[in-house]
Amino acid sequence: MHRVNNATLSIEAVFGDRGLLASRLDRYEFRPGQLEYARAIQKAIDREHFLIAEAGTGTGKTLGYLVPAILSGKKAVVSTGTKNLQEQIFFKDIPFLQELLPISFSATLMKGRSNYLCLRKYKLFQQQPLFDFIEDAQLFNKIETWALHTATGDRAEIAGLPETYQPWERIAASAETCSAQQCPLYRDCFVTRMRMRAAKADIVLINHHLFMTDMIIRTAGYNEIIPPYDIIIFDEAHQLESVATQHLGIMVSHRRIEELVRDIQREMAAAHADGLKDTTQVLSVLLSLSQQFFAAFYRPPESYRIKADHVSEKLWDNYHALAEGLSSLCSRIDGMQKKTDELEQCRYRALTIAQELSTILNLDSATHVSWCELRGSGVALHSSPIEVGSELAELLYPHIRTIVFTSATLSTNGTFAYFKRRLGLDHIAPPDEIIIPSHFDFASQAILYLPDDMPNPDSAQFVARAAERIEQVIALTRGRAFILFTSYRNMHEAYAILKDRLPYPVLLQGSKPRHEMLEEFKENISSVLFATSSFWEGVDVMGEALSCVIIDKLPFASPSDPLQEARIEHSAARGENPFLSYQVPQAIITLRQGFGRLIRSRSDRGILCLLDPRINTRHYGTLFLKSMPPCQVTSSITAVKEFLGHGAPV
Ligand code: SF4
């Protein structure tokens, strides 16, 4: 650690109206909310408490938690929901604070293993480079040039390498294929070096996926990835439940078996292991058994719960044949004379796959749900925890003294009851809580337009009427709008109606990569973007390019989604009203995220519009209204026009 002098600097000296920020930044605006937020974080750190802190948009939350963490002199880990935020903190906020504060501190970025080149796999791959496409082989040259000089092994350094570049998986680090200290390249390994940097740093930036992976590895008694720390701050904490669900569950697919087969072949060839020819036959039988087994699940819809009537006798027969194939593979590896650690690891992977498949086929337990997801031309079978709260209460909370959960959207109807229930924070000593309202003046910056003449969203006329209203509203802002849909179907239908009618550039989600589309949206001021869930959060467009956010429906998750369905049943079985205690608060948080896209600075102005009449006609509508930003609400388009006529033009 390199910190000096941290005890002499107070929170007020940084965030106060005459503090460091005010004195060093031109046009700095004192934010009382940021000061209050930073004080609450400091108190939680000093007292070693848990804190749930909602900070409305514009609070300056990142600096608000980084500064108290740095001043504390303790080692802090900051975990974000998205890579974007993680990189923004590392490349923007940290250097800014290193410059601003009269304190020396170090920070490092840790990504999930799969972002790093595995030197051992890379070496093996170079001995036997096989590509499915010629373009893949051409791109591999870039990797080879980069690998000669990279200091971090982080794939983000390779300009122009698509996210979807398949061969990367074959050379990337992964928990399943890493033999850690037994690996001959362990000392030079990029993952080892990343961990060493993290061990020395004062602030370590990670993401929720890495955090959950680490938590599970620690629990299983293996070497942790993240070095020991005193404080964990979860930013974008509203995403924690879904990330924890992914990591605390299991998933098996044909692809996973294919990868195992490929790794065994490669390891055997590299080790000159005996019986390669016979084993190749066993592996090819295994692949066809796997194909046969998974093919039985390939049917619509895109995701469904695996129920007793799906698990026929024939399916069990197929499973037993596959499990036997995996077991004979294990015996074969056991019997090899030149059995390397890596082959031993493959044996363990084969055993795990058989066990996990059996868990999935044995169907729902009181705590888990089995379900199937179609992925391209294949399927993935899952067993996911219905509630992650009790697992977090056991695996996480007793082991860390200070945890901060923060986000702009954690509360519903002014309380954290829903968030605490979902994360098991109601099973432990009550955390401290704070809600900091947005720094923006919603009353003058935004208007919430709720037309009262729309049909119900399940009516056959809904999309056509929604399209008419969208056209009318965005004529007022001359384009510059996000139109956010709760389903692809509605998005495509509305787009088909409007694409030739709108006199603005129209962008449709999926028609090009997300970042390109966002760049185009920002550059082309009058453009209109049609999008679904992935644009509801993490999108930051400041200024006039975004003057209107229109949402088609209250964003209730589909009750037929397997996890959603199981959670609804579980909540009902506990005697709760699942609609009010689970589905409504979940939708409120999503809606707040969606509307949160509009006002990103003090000078932004614009329209929020919800086309779903249920917010006014159903009893639960008031719960949504109470959770909306404190802006003027109207059902009159004339009032919207008047609002836009006042103040700075949108
Ligand atoms: S230690 Fe693991 S990740 Fe690193 S080079 Fe070896 S196998 Fe790959």
Short summary:
This protein has 26 helices and 18 strands. It has 650 residues and is α/β, with parallel strands linked by helices.
Write structural notes for this entry.
- This protein is α/β, with parallel strands linked by helices and 650 residues long.
- The chain folds into 3 domains: 6-106 and 401-436, 3-Layer(aba) Sandwich (Rossmann fold), CATH 3.40.50; 250-385, Fumarase C, Chain B, domain 1 (Orthogonal Bundle), CATH 1.10.275; 442-645, Rossmann fold (3-Layer(aba) Sandwich).
- Helices cover 46% and strands 13% of the residues.
- It is built from 26 helices and 18 strands.
- The longest helix has 22 residues, at 313-334.
- The protein is globular and about 80 Å long.
- Bound molecules: iron/sulfur cluster.
- Iron/sulfur cluster binds at residues 118-121, 173, 178-180, 183, 185-186, 189, 191.
Radius of gyration: 27 Å
Strand arrangement in the largest pleated sheet: 3-4-2-5-10-1-11
Number of distinct beta strands: 18
Q: What class would the helix/strand composition place it in?
A: alpha/beta
Major sheet attributes: 7 strands, parallel
Number of helices: 26
Helix content: 40-55%
Low-confidence stretches: none
The CATH topology name of the largest domain reads Rossmann fold
Taken as a percent bin, the fraction of beta residues is 5-15%
Number of structural domains: 3
Distance between the termini: 48 Å
